Amino acid sequence: MKQIVVRFEEDRSVPDIRVLFRASRADAQVTELMNRVRSPFVGKLTVTDSSEASVFVPLEHVVSIATDNKRLKVLADDGTYWLKGSLKEMERMLSPNMFLRISRYEIINLRKVQRFDFTLSGVLRIELEQGVETWASRRFVPVIRQRLQEQRF
User: Fold this and answer.
1) How far apart are CA 96 and CA 110, in angstroms?
2) How far is Cα 46 from Cα 38, in angstroms, rounded to an integer?
3) Pick from 83, 35, 36: which is nearest to 57 by CA?
4) What separation in angstroms does the CA of 64 have from each of 74, 82, 84, 109?
């Protein structure tokens, strides 16, 4: 186990927190540490409920994430929550094996899909758990088909 040295440098020109990992090579210890810093609550989203209280929702309970009035609406097994940020940020953060972008406005959890219905006109209707129905944008259909074939869904 390598020794970990932590140092703080104040830089008023940097608006965010930036973390740099320096090591002789990226081994398992470095990777684990980076993952912990990136997401201290691995496998959970920090969202707000209708009373504006912060709640942790396990990713496996998320059905879909969609844009709604400049916020993200998170549909989960136990209700609807809200999240600040962009869909693009969420897409980068979420596992591509578990989540799939289906339009400019929505990401779905592949494990919550009941059925894909590819119509003759090229539109894709998706049935999710809890009776939720959504549609994929036509321009995303080829990407979705490829991903489903790769994962043998």
Assistant:
1) 9
2) 13
3) 83
4) 6, 12, 15, 6
CA 151, 152, 153 angle in degrees (round to 5)? Answer: 90
Q: Measured between alpha carbons, how far is 137 from 67 in angstroms, rounded to an integer?
A: 14
Q: Is the pTM of this model over 0.85?
A: no
What totals of helices (H) and strands (E) does the chain contain, helices first? Answer: 3, 10
pLDDT mean for each 10 residues of the chain (153 residues): 84 87 87 72 81 91 94 95 91 87 96 89 87 92 88 69
Max Cα-Cα span within the chain: 60
Q: For residue 69, what are its two tokens?
A: 């009035």
Which tokens sit at 143?
């990407």
Q: How far apart are CA 123 and CA 129, in angstroms?
A: 20
Tokens (6 digits) for 114: 């009941």
Residue 146 DSSP code: H
3-state percent helix, strand, coil for the chain, nearest multiple of 5: 25, 35, 40
Structure tokens at 142: 């080829």
- Cα distance between the two ends of the chain: 40
